[in-house]
Amino acid sequence: MPPENTSIVIIGAGPAGIGMAVELLRRGITDFTVLEKADAVGGTWRDNRYPGVACDVPALYYGYSFAPNTAARSTFASGAELLDYFQGVASANDVLPHVHHGVEVASAVWDGTGWDVESTTGERWHADIVITAVGRLHRPRFPDIPGLADFTGLLAHSAQWDPTTDLHGRRLGIIGTGSSAVQMVVGASPVVEHLDLFQRTPQWVYPLADEPLPEQVRAHLAASPEAARAAYDAIEKQIAAAADAMVNGDQVRIDERDDAVRAALAGVRDPELRRKLTPGYEIGCKRLVVSGKFYDAVQQENVELVTEGIERIEADGVRTVDGVLHRLDTLILATGFRADAFLRPMRVVGEDGVDLDTVWADTFTNYKSVAIPHMPNFFTINGPFSPGGSLSILTVIEQHIGYVLQLVDTIRAQRVAVVPDTDRTQELFDEVREKATKTVWFTGGCQSWYLGADGLPIVAPLTLDQLREDMRRPVLDDFDITPLPAGASS
Q: Which Pfam family, an example, fits this chain (predicted)?
């Protein structure tokens, strides 16, 4: 079957894909297609629906700058509220007619005139430009624990949880202690009969309170775009200051953060439990878990923190290395994601038949997180080395979108192929990676998704001002720009 021709293919309909589609439509560009593997838009907020799921960035700021999220009922929006928000933005801006659901991309191959994109079911598209918006935390990581298949109760990864499941009266086990696990302990402990939290590595927890937003405040923000934008800007200023402190080593602000974290932990009454909850690495080495309720929840009588290693999973529970069988009827794997997978298992082949797996054989070499050598007219939103460790990911997404749109304009106006120069890419990449190795992410003594398989950072230490300057305008001298053959359709 011949491919469907389109100017632009966007892969993914989460926050990044929706944002890119909205901005294309605002420019009057309508000949684009969004390919989404799931049956609805929304990305991570469509997938993650476990008990207690929420965002750890203030709701008024965790949204697009052109549409501040004024509907959340508290400081931090629930997952359901965020799904409503992103689906609402997609609907209100006429993105949905461009989305093809149930389409997982298997390959994208450059043929000299454009990209042949093929799905796992054989559907094909030919596009001048491919923009990937697949996110970094969407491929679940399953633990290598013997006996997982032997468990006869309800077993699910946190990203595959069915929200209609009734947890009342259940004996629940949660493996993992990252943000998802912490939120689940808070959300599930009031209703389950018993909860075992299996911890390998404790987390530092920042105690931000999740306060209700009064109805009159929400109504005012919804009715006044100026007020909503002012609130958005005020929160951005606070987040930018925190990023500045982390990147530039502002010890006063860092000490203030650390004091708050340690004071929250000191509130755990039982000294032995407090000891078990105390990490052995520096604060900030991993992304801080944000919760003002976790330490209270983990001290409830029906909650047990299990720090003994897991020997195996059995039919009716988890057996730890001390021989104890923790009897359970429900087990949730809060074991994170394959953040280092990025575009995989998608096969991407660029100019001269160069495979992306070859380009990324050693590490995720890329140009400013948005472009890749040997891959003409192929762009990544929130790609490798995005500064997700210090800034809101929505801020990063919007900055990347603005930058890529300028390259899209160049490609369409001049009918050219644009690809980052390999040597310049390596030079800039090495600078960023060298800077990242001086951060607490690398020196703080922990393992996290901030580090790649080689043990080196895969996030960039940028302040908001640095990100904006980086994304302000493409330096076209950093790219190889060649005319497309006659007949190409840009």
A: Pyr_redox_3
CATH number of 439's domain: 3.50.50.60
| Domain residue limits at 295 | 148-212+218-333
Cβ proximity of 322 and 435 under 8 Å: no
The list of the chain residues with pLDDT below 50 reads none
Of 284, 260, 481, whose CA–CA distance to 377 is shortest? Answer: 481
Does residue 46 belong to any structural domain of this protein? no
Looking at the fold, whether 329 and 381 belong to one and the same domain comes out as: no
Report if residue 67 sits inside a domain: no
Domain check: are 237 and 328 in the same one?
yes
Tens digit of pLDDT for each residue in 328-344?
999 999 998 776 667 87
| Tens-place pLDDT, residues 7-51 | 999 999 999 999 999 999 999 999 999 999 999 999 999 999 999
Q: Cα 288 to chain center, whole Å?
A: 14
Overall domain count for the chain: 2
Q: How far apart are CA 29 and CA 32, in angstroms?
A: 7
Within a 10 A sphere around the Cβ of 112, how many other Cβ atoms?
11
Alpha-carbon distances of 232 from 61, 244, 280, 311, 425, rounded to whole Å: 5, 18, 36, 48, 34
- Of 299, 333, 367, the residue at which a domain comes to its end is 333
